[in-house]
Fold this sequence. Notes:
heterodimer, A: alpha/beta, Aconitase, domain 3, Aconitase, Domain 2, 3 domains, four-stranded parallel sheet, 31% helix, B: alpha/beta, Aconitase, domain 4, seven-stranded mixed sheet, 7 strands, globular
Amino acid sequence: MSRTTLFDKVWSDHVVVTETDSTPAILYIDLHIIHEVTTPQAFTVLREQGLPVRRPDLTLPTMDHSTPTTPVFSFKDLAVVGESAANQIRQMEINCKEFGLDLIGFGNEQRGIVHVIGPELGATQPGKTIVCGDSHSSTHGAFGALAFGIGTTEVGHVLATQCLLQRKPKTLAVSVDGILPTGVSAKDLILAVIGQIGVNGGTGHVIEYRGDAINGLDMESRMTVCNMSIEAGARAGMIAPDDTTFEYLHDRPRSPKGADWETAVARWKTLRTDDGAHFDKSVALDTSVLQPMVTFGTNPGMVVGIGDPVPDGGGDPSFRKALHYMRIESGKPMTEYDVDVVFVGSCTNGRLSDIRETARILQGRKIADGVRMLVVPGSQQVKREAENEGLDQIILRAGAEWREAGCSMCIGMNGDTVPSGKLSVSTSNRNFEGRQGIGARTVLASPATAAASALRGRVTDPRTIS
Amino acid sequence: MSGITHIKSRTVVLPTKDIDTDQIIAARFLTTTSREGLGRNLFYDLRYNSDGSENDKFPLNTSSAKGCEILIAGNNFGCGSSREHAPWALLDFGFRAIISTEIADIFRNNALKNGLVPVVVDQDIHRWLIDNPGVEVEIDVKNATLALPDGTVTSFPIDAFAKYCLVEGIDQLGFLLQHHDEIANFEGSRTWKP
């Protein structure tokens, strides 16, 4: 039998019709997560063609992108996000009702960011194909699922047929061996990977993250790593499931139960890359050189170790343009820049371990005068769990804001934005021009670096906070 | 969707690398529930100054850019989010093709499904197109070629099925729906159920 990769195994298990030179494969989708921003036009197509949603049971709808993170008690309160966003949220409710979908909407204690609640509910499982109209769908690959973002036309395809037309992508092995140095998190690791291979280094490929350093990560850290695969241009990132995965999934609301659990785990254990299987491309990252990483430019590949000087870009005009926008100089480390806003949250770093790490650094301290800090849980469940541990009180006492679940300042389309010209240290995934608000200058970092920077009012190495 | 066989137009050039979908259409314009009218917000923060006036220096605002249907862009165009609003906005503005040395995966897929033709060329041709904005070029979709004003004709890669759908104006949803029986058989014969 030929030796195959984890990706090959999941792919071939979902091929309905094999690809040929003239037609792509028809690939079956096991879980379709939908949200209010990238679905309305897809429902319009279904309505126009008189088509039902083929598998409401495999469709998981929630609201996260344009929803406010201030408490909302009724639709009147939606005024905070503006009429257009409020209308979009109302339309999502109408669409779900009309097509028979169980919406995890306002007031539902399971609501949260699409890529936080899938795993939390146990709907995300090894070996599944998972899609969502959101490029950070790669997050679910942390469980050994094949998960990728799709556009709205494809959302319509999955709603109507539970299938997608896909060409088989290539494979890229990213090996990370060794031990992560103290004070270095999964966020720093993935930023270093993107810095090494570039924002287009993974284009056309599915990444498999491998090696001791990856196997040693907990599930929330693995999700942070896979989440940012798209920032290297790869549509999907995967990690082979293991006991850490199974332990996380055990007893989740939508995980298999009883005898089904045993059967599922036995199947999941086969989802591994065979020794000697072929990858189209391979890269390795040396963990010993890792340190807390921060971005200095306008894409996630423009990243530097926190103590290192910002590079000069060798005269590349796009590089110069990015530094001009960021008001950052070559040759100086990022720790010389003052901070106006700090954001902890998003599908990259809005989980309980991220909130715990933030609280650990803020504990008994105050954030610097003039800094606005938002801590936004990735789901209502993360919010409850953090509050049960008293983390909200630590955060509030430090002078930061503790808000309702949602995408918040990661995407700046829900009322939470960074003012023009202000520098934001953010645990989110994109430092694109204007991503967090018009003229916002975003520095991507880990929760620890973000919290440390809030305390000092300057980009700060978290290892310097005792 | 009607079929697309030829696009002949002058070009407008945005030489910056890694133009992401947030720059193409900012998230604050994604609260719409329609595909229409996004062109006015295309590249909004680059096209307009903070006081709302037009940025004269931005290539799309120059008089020679009027009516151009082909955008020449820096490497890795369309990276970032999966928002299909990006090709919708480009099409609504009047573009029908994008030429670059690399076009990001999700953007390329979304573009093809909406009749916006992604054309990837080599560094030399790209460099020449960047250095010569406003020239008239012709894209032959059926033969997957790009013709330059000096008569040079170069081929570009395009998936056979995507090309067929573009040229014939085929709706891919219709194609998928025709496979109803295979999909039902697959669902019925799986050894495990999601």
